[in-house]
Amino acid sequence: MNTELDKVKSTITISLGLKNRLRDVKGNSSYEEFIGQLLRFRNELAHKDNYIELQKFQRREKVYSFNDFKIVFSYNKYNQSPNFVFDIQIVNIRQNGQNIISINFGNDELHSAYKLYFELLTLAIQTEIEPLFKHKGRFEDYYLWRREFDRFGLSKKAFENDVMEKLDDYKNGVDYK
Amino acid sequence: MIDISTLEQYFPQVNKPLIFGEYTFTILFRQEEDTFLINLKIKQRDTKKSHLIGFRFGIGKDKKQKDASHETDKPHSEIDIYKREKESFSATVYFTFHDSEDKTIFEYAKGTIVLIDKIIKQFIKNEKLDAIIIKKIIYDEAVLDELAQFEPALIDALYDRYKNSNLIVREGNNRVVIKTPHNFKKYLGMNAGVKDLDPLFLPLLKKIEKN
Fold it and tell me: Do B90 and A156 touch (CB under 8 A)?
């Protein structure tokens, strides 16, 4: 038993022929145990091979508004691939309707750019995964991001690309403007 | 478990992005008790245009991960390609070295550095960047003088993985087993629009076509 759902009985519809073949080969195991065993074999096989995983992600656009700013940004629509990343991209920034190049939160320019980036990442997570998600703390807090990505079951790759790489870039002064 | 730390001598700077024009080049080096990683990562800085590209190539061994789609705790050669257009496209390639001894994996790591050198040089040429930056990323001459002999061993090992174990393309719910040069080119070569990794794919394709 792994989760509460594993305790709930359910039915699946399969042909009588397949059911008979399953009954013949399952021996003394229950259907539940036998299908679980097949799944484990399948995973072992799937993991042993070399592979190429190809993924296409739809891009979504959203507007982040605060004070008199409007930030149009895009990101990948969430799917459960282990290769999923949000890949936040700022499309346009407006202040009072006028296009501007960057936002300054009163700190230095680089800090402001990364602070904005992590605000947008938070909004993308709220939109795609969990409306109640709110990053509590400074954006530089790597442990907090890791805990939150784990909690929402987001891929390790997304954590590496969308959080760690950006934090490293910030630390190293990489300006993506 | 191999110790890759001596191989750092071939790079002026590791784990820190080097910015040249609109690209960042990062050599990732990580060594822990039971894991290691050598990666080249090239990323286009965001210029507000589409077609952002990034790719990563290297060798590594990670901790065991329950939900991973490959055996992370086995040494593996890995390639990651990402493009952002109207849709985003990502391709991840893993060749797992199952039964190799540490000595052999260390040789593959050296061969990987030779390929990293070639990929950097080709990328700089294709993107018409100033060749002077090569030496700021990798010590090209030392790599060719001291490590070139290990490249064929890595290509042979990758070919061996291709030949003796299925190379499966996972695309959504589809599964395609690459068994022909045609399919190899379609998914990994020039027909897939992945010219940046030719220093790896062309010798591998040559071997596949020859045999």
Answer: no
